[in-house]
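Continuing the batch. This is chain 6 of the set; chains 1 through 5 are on the previous pages. Same settings as before, nothing changed between runs. Recording input and output for traceability.
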Amino acid sequence: MFMKGKKGVVIGVANKRSIAYGIAKQCAAEGAQIAYTYLNERFKEKVAPLAKELGSELVYELDATKPEQIRALKESLEKDMGKIDFIVHSIAYAPKEGLVGRFCDITKDAFNLSMEISVYSLIEITQVLKPLLNEESSILTLSYYGGVKYIPNYNLMGVAKAALEMTVRYMAEDLGKDKIRVNAISAGPIKTLAASGIGDFSLMLKWNEAHSPLKKNVSIDEVGKSGMYLLSDLSSAVTGEIHYVDCGFNIMGMPSIETIDGKVQMKQMRK
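Output for chain 6:
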């Protein structure tokens, strides 16, 4: 078992379709002891049974906009687990106005809230939990290709993911002095709760499937396996990386010449 004896916390499980759940599932299968967080009481009803299913009774409330809850999480983890070996950060948010319309019309409040939850939360959570991290620990966050290239309707989240990816690189250098690794997975589109707020998401799935080299969409289990690798000692010399798990879509500069003309393809996909 690649993660036998490892302990950590997974932040961001909402349901079985969450990427964080896929990562937790693979880590638990490899022997990891995992604590989970939930946003509020409504989500606790969903997260607690999933945690139990994966062999854990450790479930704590965490709203990343509330510093006191982050501090409370540290106290709970220290009490129930002692030192830990990994953190999974899988939380992001943009108000609806940040995912529709013209990007240049986004308000300062929407921008600041998205950056606080999607980016700064990784920094703040790491600051607070760092005293609990063993040497050679691993921190993992979740990104998307919309932080590198324009993706329709991704808007504010694209800017947030771009900031998150640079945060990974700067944190990797900084925490490398403490033998702590920091990486991100850039997963292909998956039907998650967060994705439900993105317009034309079904079209995005069809486009990715049609134009990725593997001609399919990635599954939560596949992302989970890559997450387990980055959290385990298998990746002991890997840090500061944005690891793509998107069936190769990110390498494509244009659709393959074997596919139908892009405009025709788009019309067919909308049907």
